Amino acid sequence: MLHRIDDRLIHGQVVVGWGRPLGVGFIALVDDTVAASDWEQELYRMGVPPEMTLYFADVATAEREHPKWESDSRPGIVLTPDIGTMARLAASVPVTEVNLGGIHHAPGRTQRLQYVFLTPEEEQALRDLAERGVKIFAQDVPGGKPVELGDLL
Amino acid sequence: MSFLEVLPIALLGAVCGLDFVSFPQAMISRPIVGATAGGAILGSPSAGLLIGVVLELLALDTRPFGASRYPEWGTAGVTGGAVFASVGAGRPGGLAVAAFVSLVTAMLSGSSMVLLRKLIGARAAVTRELIEAGSERAVVGLQLFGLTADLLRGFILTLLAVALAVPLARGMVEIWGLPATFSNAAVIGLAGAVAGGSLWKFFTAGTRTGWLFLAGLVIGLGFVAVQ
Amino acid sequence: MTRIHVPFMTRLVTWLRLFAVQGSWNYEILLGNGIGFCAEPALRLLPGGRGGDKYRRALARQSRYFNAHPYLAAVAVGALTRAELEEVDPAKIERFRTALAGPLGSVGDRLVWSGWLPLCSLLALGAYGVGGSAGLVVALFLIVYNVGHVALRAWGLKVGFSQGTEVAKSLSTPLLRRSPEWIDRAGALLAGIAVPTAVERAVGIGGEVSAVAIGAVLIGGVVLARIPNTSVGWRLALGILSIIVLYAVLA
User: Fold this and answer.
1) A107 reaches C (C-beta below 8 A)
2) Residues of chain C numbered 228-247 and touching chain A (CB < 8 Å)
3) Interface predicted TM-score (ipTM) of this complex, two decimals
4) Residue C147, burial from CB neighbour count under 10 angstroms (0-12, 13-18, 19+)
């Protein structure tokens, strides 16, 4: 199961780029706001092919459901929109690897890669995650070069 | 080649290069189109089509999403078609040299696109305050800047590629030391293998369309055997 | 909510601008500025008109970071413009904008970049393989591909304009959800036919050389299919080609 941080959530790189070569059977979208919004869920659902299952969860639900996703025989992706959400999730469930897939330009962020822009607070949050033993790597698509956290910051 | 001979090819390269990302994305940037047109300008559409087919097979392996850097086939196709037609399609080594030149162009052109997009980003950063204030001139201006710069990029790139590659390719063909049948078959076989491997991976991953691919292969090989 | 009438000429200009939506694509805001550029003509219909306060705020909002498939961006431009003209709460527009981007990218990537485009490319290669002339191959490819391309942009803008923030319903139609699957199947079948026939005609001698070339293609294809990363094939081809060229020139 791939844990990915991507502010675009469901999009082509996730569904086609990772989804196809991995044969992904489900995507769990963990975001408190989306979990509470029907019309946003409706939009995200249309971005997923019929043969993939899409779960919506807030962090609390994700903590409960995580073991079930982990034991699913199909390959899956757990997707969060930001580092904070992933850090909260990783605090209570076992996460060994986190993939930085896309954090884009916003005021206060500095460019680290073509698809990774970070604020100083976000950098610290990533370092904290790494200190807890989580392996962090940036990679947009399977064909792209993985970049370790040490080379990123 | 004189400047007047290269000019129409460079203009075609500009249009095909622009089509790749910026405008209108009608896929005249596909090598099967660009190379055929490039060959046609020099009087040999069928030579252009042959190199176009080779490049199109290779292009099937690159899809324009995700990868932060990918080959740009618009200018590359035009360059390949023009080079192949100008060295003479019948010459041993012509196809191999044209395909080589074309792939190098595709790579350099891909890098030039990254630079162009950085340039547009820098320009966007300078005008950000005006755009944030909802200035029509700033928004439309940035768009026109990007389009013009991309058109120029394709023009300069094709101009340089063709001007450098045609004499080089002619020289290489002069001293070519392999039989025509072998070098042509090797280039085409290579492109076919890249396409075949990529398509097989694509159609067997995730979805269950691999058996349709095999069924197609039976039909295709049957057709070839009958020929 | 009031229904806003968008004149035909405004729709037409918006649709034409959509062909250049990626003109200012960059790594910071992607095609954000392009969305503003395409929405701009219709935003002039806001109270206060062109250059007015509402116009300027809407234009600024629409020109921020945005990512989508360039063809499906038509849906976004239509829906976001409609939401702006209805003067929907800006905070809701921002969330709608965010939620729209990814799914439109995903639909476009499946439908076009890994569906319609390779299908049409294979159609052209197949037409070449069975003996089509240069004019026929190129015309067939451009016409078939662009019928789909142009129609998709027009349809996208239309549903976007007419549905506004409700646009998800139109996008979850069975036709749109199922068509990538059908395109995939047609593509798989066509791929099997097109690659060997195109290789055979390109080699062009027939007999043993063709048989050896096609055999090499099959074996090479199986080997290459084992390489896990996609998009390395052309680099590999360049590498092998460099060796052949060097050998032939130096030998």
Assistant:
1) no
2) 228-232
3) 0.96
4) exposed
